[in-house]
Amino acid sequence: MSWTEKLNDTRGQLRGLNKTIPDTAKAFGALGKTVKEGGVLDFKTKEFVALGMAIVSRCEPCISLHCDALVKAGATREEVSDVLAMAIQMGGGPAMMYAGKALECFDELSAG
């Protein structure tokens, strides 16, 4: 399955979850909006942090969502690679495997 398909599946699953627990979904969405719009770090930097955390926590759906956000935010492959290196340093061998997935995802989503 391609990363684009995985991303679409994740979004579909989230839409289903949002319909089932709308109050929780609305509150979570508000938290995300507040965190991403507030503070001193810009949106792209915050997405870099989120991608690093997604890699270390081994969450493929999170990797696809944050890679997509980074592509839309204008992140470069070199910038993402720096994040991957940091995630590997913090997460060891398992992070190395998920960093490979993240790079593949970023490359696919940024190509199309």
Automatic annotation (TrEMBL):
Keyword NAD: no
Domain of life: Bacteria
UniProt domain Carboxymuconolactone decarboxylase-like: residue ranges: 22-103
Pfam (any one): CMD
Keywords associated with the record: Oxidoreductase, Peroxidase
Cited InterPro entries: AhpD-like, AhpD_core, CMD-like
Molecular-function annotations in GO: peroxiredoxin activity
Keyword NAD recorded: no
Protein's UniProt name: Alkylhydroperoxidase AhpD family core domain protein
Originating organism: Shimia marina
